[in-house]
Amino acid sequence: MALSDNFHCSVVTPERAVLECDAKFVALPAWDGEVGILKGRAPLLCKLGIGQLRIETAEEKHLLFVDGGFAEMLGDQLTILTEDARTPEELDRQKANSELDAARALAVTDDASFEARQKALQRARTQLRLTK
User: Fold this and answer.
1) Fewer CB within 10 Å: C terminus or N terminus of the chain?
2) Which residue has the higher pLDDT, 4 or 30?
3) For residue 124, what are the domain limits?
4) DSSP state, 90?
5) Is the pLDDT of residue 3 over 70?
6) For 33, left (φ over 0), alpha (ψ -120 to 50), or beta?
7) DSSP code, position 82
């Protein structure tokens, strides 16, 4: 009997379970850079940033926009808890363009407003990349 290279991956938001699948590879946007996950990875708990989540199964590839949260790899189970997870089909290019314009117009008066502007820019740019 052949051993599987797959591990279970769950993507969950407060509103719904977005995706449940057996994955071969996952690339997730950690707050400090991209992290790749394969079966047998050491236990991991990391804070997610804003970005593109890539999940490869034996049959297909899934792309999702994620907006913060946490990822935990324990055994052969990857759980991704995020505030927002949407497929490219669920994203609205026109709305993302409007959000990018609004983010560019945000005034920067202190460190908190600078960070909020940077997150808004990253959120809009990631959505635009996924809707191409």
Assistant:
1) N
2) 30
3) 91-130
4) G
5) no
6) left
7) -
Tally of domains in the chain: 2
Question: What are the tens digits of pLDDT across the range 20-66?
Answer: 999 999 999 999 999 999 998 899 999 999 999 999 998 999 999 99
Task: Please report whether residue 79 resides in a domain.
Answer: yes
Q: Are 128 and 93 in contact (CB under 8 A)?
A: yes
Is position 121 within any domain? yes
Task: Tell whether 72 and 106 lie within a shared domain.
Answer: no
Is 2 among the domain residues? Answer: no
The pair of three-digit structure tokens given for residue 13, joined into one six-digit string: 């938001």
Residue 117 makes CB contacts below 8 A (sequence gap 6+) with 103, 106, 108
Cα separation of 84 and 7, whole Å?
23
Q: Do 68 and 19 lie in a common domain?
A: yes
